[in-house]
Amino acid sequence: DAFEIMAENYEFKENETFCLEFLRAASVLKFLPFPVTRMKEIQGLPCMGDRVRDVIEEIIEEGESSRAKEVLNDERYKSFKQFTSVFGVGVKTSEKWYRMGLRTLEEVKADKTLKLSKMQRAGFLYYEDLVSCVSKAEADAVSLIVKNTVCTFLPDALVTITGGFRRGKKIGHDIDFLITNPGPREDDELLHKGLLLYCDIIESTFVKEQLPSRKVDAMDNFQKCFAILKLYEPRVDNSSYNASKNFDMAEVKDWKAIRIDLVITPFEQYAYALLGWTGSRQFGRDLRRYATHERKMILDNHALYDRRKRIFLKAGSEEEIFAHLGLDYVEPWERNA
């Protein structure tokens, strides 16, 4: 998709304005029930700025975008695309490696002077598994492991799969879970050590009575665990691994490394966290923008604050949050664009 290529390139250049411009346009076009074949079909649509319209016009006339093609052939873009595919590598690290003259992952692995973080080492170690797609069947299998393990320690806990899989998607690149407990907190281990290939726990930095963040893309302050789970393939019907004729059956790996994010939220903030972590990213941005500009409220993954009444609005469900905002409830599978 030309717009997503353009947006990704601007993200690599840390140009948030242009990146969002193409992401928002892509979301609008995906939502249309028909493919755009004439310029007059986009008249009156939001998020169709001059840069976006130029790309659309060229695709209609030429069948492709020369700008997107140029990006795909750009050395910097190709290097950043490779670097950021590694778990634990972002734009800042990619920029550092690129300035060092590195262009491919092979060159990164061959450079013995580089000091990789624990997360990056895990990213390289399980690279092939982590860049492959996670199927719905695999997500369901991991969900069962997480729920059973959490409920061993916290029988009343609520464990909900979020992200793309909650929005009805059939494939993803990682699996996000929201965990909350109506009762008192217990600091037990959440997953069996034998199944964890990598684990990084980020402690909560939430301050009670703190106003929601005004930033549209602000990170929340929940306790999180970024982990890589070993999923044994017999648990999944559609195994990702087929035995090669060149290998003995005993040598075939019978497990797959899968990225999971566990987010621990206080029970009273669960509805807001569920709304935020379900996504999509663009849907969340637009909802927070709507709350700010149309309702004079501030919304984030922790709370909704009414600036006119100067009160926090409690919500026990996503439906109640939409009601506070004066909006009809939008089902998770309708939040992809």
From TrEMBL:
Intracellular or extracellular location(s): Nucleus
Reactions accelerated catalytically: DNA(n) + a 2'-deoxyribonucleoside 5'-triphosphate = DNA(n+1) + diphosphate
Coiled-coil ranges from the UniProt annotation: none
GO MF annotation: an example: DNA-directed DNA polymerase activity
Binding site for Mg(2+): 174, 176, 261
E.C. numbers: 2.7.7.31
Top-level taxon: Eukaryota
Keyword check for Magnesium: yes
Entry keyword annotation includes Membrane: no
Record keywords: Magnesium, Metal-binding, Nucleotidyltransferase, Nucleus, Terminal addition, Transferase
GO CC annotation, single: nucleus
Family: Belongs to the DNA polymerase type-X family.
The protein's name in its UniProt record: DNA nucleotidylexotransferase
Organism in which the protein naturally occurs: Pelecanoides urinatrix (Common diving petrel)
Gene: Dntt
